[in-house]
Design brief:
This is Glycine reductase. By secondary structure, this protein is α/β, with parallel strands linked by helices. 35% of the residues lie in helices and 13% in strands. It has one domain.
């Protein structure tokens, strides 16, 4: 691989970032050498496929969540939710740490491919499950595995799901849905994860991974680019059908732009002035306290 074309090392980048902000005890991402693996029980055209996302339903009373919105901890959610796949939904990603400099959060189809999946199901590509599912982005791996994933698994079983397409957004989102993919696969449900954080997903160990080297928040394709979105989903579905062993990663041939300079900015303390780091530390601390209060209220 061309060194200039190397994916962003998100685990190291985020560790260095939070150390630069003054936080100790760097986060340890989930790690597994192997991964469970489940082939499709029947042809994809006959399989019931669901969608799993870390995007959040829009909450108009919770502050900015639209295009260009800053990180908004008030818009987080802390329990799995489900939605009708036959209906349209307004899901946002302002509550997680996507790349706000190089993408605008204007086109939800770049992180929530339900409309495209509905269209492909109508064409007979697969059978769409009656519900999609939202998974909270929780730093606690134990809570994700012991509390959230059992809810997801039960709902997939209720809907007779054969396979799942999982689309994360932020770094921890990629860990959350990697853990979910492992659990679903171990329970007999084939999975494919569409993501942008190669190191986090491969560190966690998943059965099938379609890697798009795009800024975080665009795992389902480029915004306002129907061809990119269709090609991305088709690659994922093809991987779902063709993978013969666990930990199969396919890299999308699409490029974000003619230059890879965008990879230098995300959580890179070397590209931020000291005074700006102090301000960002204050923002991070305020967001942490907001999230903690919301989590406590949600769990009561």
């Amino acid at each position: 691989m061309d060194p200039d074309d190397a994916p962003i090392p998100y685990m190291q980048r985020t560790r260095d970032w939070y150390l630069a902000l003054g936080y100790g005890n760097p986060y340890r991402y989930a790690h597994h050498d192997g991964a469970p693996f489940q082939r499709l029980h029947r042809p994809l055209a006959e399989s019931v496929v669901t969608l799993v996302t870390t995007a959040a339903p829009f909450q108009p009373d919770k502050g900015p969540q639209g295009p260009g919105a800053p990180y908004n901890a008030a818009a987080k959610f802390y329990a799995p939710y489900s939605g009708d796949t036959a209906a349209d939904h307004d899901l946002r990603i302002a509550h997680v740490a996507i790349d706000r400099k190089h993408t605008s959060m204007e086109d939800s189809r770049s992180w929530f491919p339900l409309p495209l999946m509905r269209g492909l199901a109508a064409q007979g590509r697969f059978r769409l499950a009656p519900r999609f599912h939202g998974m909270p982005t929780n730093r606690s791996q134990r809570h994700t595995q012991d509390v959230d994933i059992p809810v997801l698994l039960q709902r997939c079983r209720e809907d007779g799901v054969d396979a799942a397409v999982l689309v994360p957004n932020c770094p921890v989102c990629h860990q959350t849905l990697s853990l979910a993919a492992r659990a679903l696969e171990a329970a007999g449900i084939a999975t494919v994860l569409m993501g942008c954080a190669l190191d986090i997903v491969e560190h966690a160990g998943v059965p099938r991974f379609l890697f798009s080297d795009f800024p975080l928040g665009n795992a389902a394709g480029k915004p306002h680019d129907a061809a990119s979105q269709r090609a991305t989903l088709e690659l994922a579905l093809g991987l779902l059908e063709s993978a013969g062993q666990p930990r199969t990663t396919v890299r999308s041939p699409q490029r974000w732009s003619g230059s890879d300079d965008w990879k230098l900015d995300y959580c890179n303390a070397h590209r931020v002035a000291p005074g700006e780091l102090a301000r960002l530390r204050e923002e991070a601390e305020a967001a942490r306290l907001t999230a903690r209060a919301l989590r406590a209220a949600d769990l009561r």
